[in-house]
Specification:
It is a single chain. By secondary structure, the protein is an alpha+beta fold. It has a four-stranded mixed sheet. Strands 7-11-8 form a three-stranded antiparallel sheet, sandwiched between helices. It has helices spanning 2-5, 7-10, 36-41, 43-46, 68-93, 100-113, 123-128, 137-146, 150-154, 172-179, 191-195, 208-219, 228-233, 249-267, 270-290, 299-303, 307-316, 323-335, 354-358, 363-373, 416-423, 443-454; strands at 11-16, 20-25, 158-159, 162-163, 235-238, 241-245, 342-351, 384-390, 405-408, 413-414, 429-437. It folds into three domains: 2-270, Orthogonal Bundle (Hypothetical protein af1432); 273-335, no CATH class; 342-392 and 427-464, Alpha-Beta Plaits (2-Layer Sandwich), CATH 3.30.70. The N and C termini lie far apart (79 Å).
Length: 466
């Protein structure tokens, strides 16, 4: 009985609102081998508890207080589940595949660490600070996986399914490759790693199959069903890559529609964009006063930089003088939702043809046209045009680096026409065009000018410009 009971010493259950219970491996008493619990307890993972999953949308949706840490657990769970389902298929397709526990754990670690490099306010940090160094959170994440987290990764010896075969270990380079869209520099990784990359790269992945239903649930936003079970069940590997059986095609369509709905109604919500416009004016300067430079050169300082620490630090600047106090006042306005920008115009466009989707508007053209429609005394009024676009599907699904390939069970073949027919039901791109102003007077005149300049009933987006 003691041997049977020992399994409960090796694996914990963590309750999750989306997936029910998530298994976590634990370090056994007296063992020198590492476990997932060691990774979870690492300061780099624990800091993700203090970085919101929703960037700035948590200021708009009171329930959206969940963190990157929760999403990392969900992505780990789905990555491991997918690996277990694909393993028999993988072993037939690719030579020299490690044991199931080793493959499963490699994918679980990749899911767990795919966002470990994120800074405060997530992707906003990428776009408004890291861009100056020509890096993003994924570059930082790979550096951590191959650096500080590497000893723990290589010391793992089991997954929730059991112990690795003798001599096996998880190579941190495999983990880094799995979460990278483009192949990393030499030396090459094993073929089985490349075969499993679609689990974390592509149109439906362990990443977005977790964050779409999780963000919707936590925000209280109703979306159509996200049938994770069906998508995983009908995904399999072939020489062509990852295939989706035709019986899973409708589940994919439902998921892509749900993801599009979240972009237009949570991530690109009008008030979220107002907050982002306000933050953009002070964010880079704020980070420069906290972080000495490129996070890759200052990892210790970066480890302490989170949503919580940033807001707490700038709050302390209220007691200083000069520019720090000015920045503190602007951050205080954001925290209190005393937002600078007001919405005066909004329109929505969908493109279903490649010709239309290639066109991408320049916000400065919108500003120019609005100014031409304004009275002379308002020609220099303060205006910001925000263009928020989503690409629900590839412009050319056959050139996508991780294409969706649908297997027809009748013809026993992968049919390109099935992919084209599926994507025909989705727009290639959707675009929300919004105009904001920080003027407190002449709002009606500004609204009327924006309407005259931009609103074109039943027109294409390109026709809204001269």
């Amino acid at each position: 009985m003691s041997d049977l009971a020992r399994q409960y010493d090796a694996v914990n259950l963590v309750a999750d609102p989306l997936h029910g219970y998530i298994k976590i491996t634990k370090r056994l008493h007296g063992s020198s081998a590492a476990a997932e619990q060691d990774l979870l307890d690492d300061p780099w993972l624990q800091r993700l508890r203090r970085i919101h999953q929703l960037q700035s949308a948590w200021w708009v949706f009171p329930g959206g207080e969940h963190s990157r840490f929760q999403h990392a657990l969900g992505a780990m769970h789905l990555s491991g589940d997918w690996a277990r389902r694909l393993y028999p298929n993988l072993a037939e397709l690719v030579p020299e595949v490690p044991s199931l526990p080793c493959v499963e754990e490699t994918l679980r670690v990749a899911g767990l660490l795919h966002d470990v490099g994120h800074g405060p306010f997530g992707h906003f940090f990428d776009q408004n600070y890291l861009d100056r160094f020509r890096i993003d959170h994924e570059v930082i994440g790979r550096a951590l996986i191959l650096g500080e987290l590497s000893p723990t990764i290589t010391a793992l010896d089991a997954s929730p399914s059991g112990r690795f075969a003798p001599g096996e270990r998880v190579d941190p380079r495999w983990v880094a490759e799995l979460i990278a869209e483009a192949p990393l520099a030499a030396p090459p990784v094993p073929l089985w790693v490349t075969a499993l990359k679609p689990i974390l790269n592509g149109m439906y992945t362990a990443d977005n199959l977790d964050y779409v239903p999780r963000d919707a649930y936590m925000c209280g936003v109703k979306i159509g069903p996200v049938d994770i079970e069906r998508l995983l069940h009908y995904s399999f590997l072939a020489p062509e890559g990852m295939l989706l059986h035709q019986h899973g095609a409708q589940a994919l369509l439902l998921f892509l529609n749900a993801r599009l709905y979240l972009y237009n109604n949570i991530y690109y919500h009008r008030t979220v964009r107002r907050i982002d416009l306000h933050m953009r004016e002070i964010f880079g300067e704020t980070i420069e006063r906290i972080l000495p430079g490129n996070p890759l050169d200052h990892l210790s300082a970066y480890q302490g930089l989170t949503d919580w620490s940033l807001i707490d630090t700038v709050d302390g600047w209220r007691r200083q003088e000069g520019r720090p106090a000015e920045l503190a006042r602007e951050w205080g306005r954001i925290v209190r939702r005393e937002l600078k920008w007001r919405l005066i115009f909004e329109d929505y466009y969908e493109f279903s043809s490649l010709e239309d989707a290639i066109f991408y508007p320049d916000p400065s053209e919108y500003v120019r046209r609005i100014r031409e429609a304004l009275p002379a005394d308002l020609a220099q009024a303060s205006l910001e045009v925000d263009v928020a676009s989503v690409d629900p599907r590839p412009q050319n699904p056959f050139n996508d680096p991780f294409p969706v390939s649908i297997f027809n069970p009748v013809s026993q073949a992968v049919e390109r026409s099935a992919v084209a027919e599926l994507f025909r039901r989705l727009p290639i791109r959707t675009t929300l065009v919004r105009v904001f102003t920080d003027e407190r007077q002449h709002l009606e005149a500004l609204r009327a000018a924006a309407e005259r300049a931009l609103y074109r009933p039943d027109s294409r987006l390109a026709e809204a410009l001269p």
